[in-house]
Amino acid sequence: MHFTKMHGLGNDYVYVDCIRKPPPRDPAGLSRRISDRHFGVGSDGLILICPSERADVRMRIFNADGSEGEMCGNGIRCVAKYVYERGIAAKARLTVETGRGVLTLDLTVKGGKVGLVRVDMGEPLLRPAEIPTTLGGERVVNVPLPDWPEGLAVKELLAAADTEAGLTCVCTGNPHAIFYCRDVAKVPLETVGPALENAPFFPRRTNIHFVHVDGPGEVTMRTWERGSGITLACGTGASAVCVAGVLTGRTGRKLVAHLPGGDLQLEWSETDNYVYKTGPAVEVFDGEWPDA
């Protein structure tokens, strides 16, 4: 099986062209094997580029643990680069079908190569049932972290890391829970991440983000991704952080998010209520996988 490894701000995936070749028999199992950073290619997951009756292409994403996700904000930029540069749909504006619906992407192209990609992420979902979470209210904004069996230890760790007690939940294609803190580097992400991801009030699990507000138009964040663990960037997560900043009154509608892998430009538009995200897409290498 031919594959291409690509990344958006270090959020790396293995990409497979399922338009010109048959799809893998077991994509969930393949994702687990190929994502292994010691015995596989090494990645945050597997992305299949498939035919679509509704858009230029369809994207399916499988996390490193084999679970299928709805969307990937960094991965979709790489899909656009792949599709354009390989002539599948050589257009400066592309449409991609995802678990979130059909999204529109605008490509910056120089010398036949795609650099930056601007993604129309659509409207954020804010009602608890849409996210989904069982936390109550019309919106989950600055809501105190509930108690649950592992919760006491998590709360103690968060307090020690100067994390504020409330969380804000947003869906931007995937479910996200956002916490604000004084220093993202002090958060024991490898411990609190999996506990929060699998907390009982997130029926489909969730992605976790810790955010420090550097100013009204700038934040620094770290991420624990559902099904993949600590990653260098999360595009849907940064989009959710942009929305959460407005909902909590911490930041404006235009935002630069500093992630471990680099920066993303974000805007929650007042005009159409859509979130727009701009960032790079980078190809790393091609290869052949012996067992698909």
Query: What number is the mean pLDDT?
Result: 97
Structural class: alpha+beta
Low-confidence stretches: none
Measured by DSSP, the beta-strand proportion falls in 35-45%
**Major sheet attributes:** 18 strands, mixed
Question: What is the tally of helical segments?
Answer: 5
Supply the CATH superfamily name of the largest domain.
Diaminopimelate Epimerase, Chain A, domain 1
* SSE ordering: EEHEEEHEEEEHEEHEEEHEEEE
Number of domains: 2
CATH class of the largest domain: Alpha Beta
- Which percent bin holds the helix content? 10-25%
Level-2 CATH architecture of the largest domain = Roll
Indicate the radius of gyration in whole angstroms.
18 Å
CATH topology of the largest domain: Diaminopimelate Epimerase, Chain A, domain 1
Shape: globular
Distance, first to last CA: 6 Å
**Beta strand count:** 18
Q: What would you say about this model in short?
A:
With 292 residues, the chain is of the alpha+beta class.
How would you describe this structure to a colleague?
By secondary structure, the protein is an alpha+beta fold. The chain has two domains: 2-120 and 279-288, Roll (Diaminopimelate Epimerase, Chain A, domain 1), CATH 3.10.310; 128-273, Diaminopimelate Epimerase, Chain A, domain 1. It contains five helices and 18 strands. The protein has helices spanning 27-35, 73-85, 151-160, 189-197, 235-247, and strands at 2-8, 11-17, 45-50, 57-63, 68-69, 93-98, 101-110, 113-120, 143-144, 166-171, 175-180, 207-215, 218-225, 229-231, 254-259, 262-268, 275-280, 282-288. It has an 18-stranded mixed sheet that branches. The longest helix has 13 residues, at 73-85. It is globular, with a radius of gyration of 18 Å. The chain starts with a strand and ends with a strand. The mean pLDDT is 97.
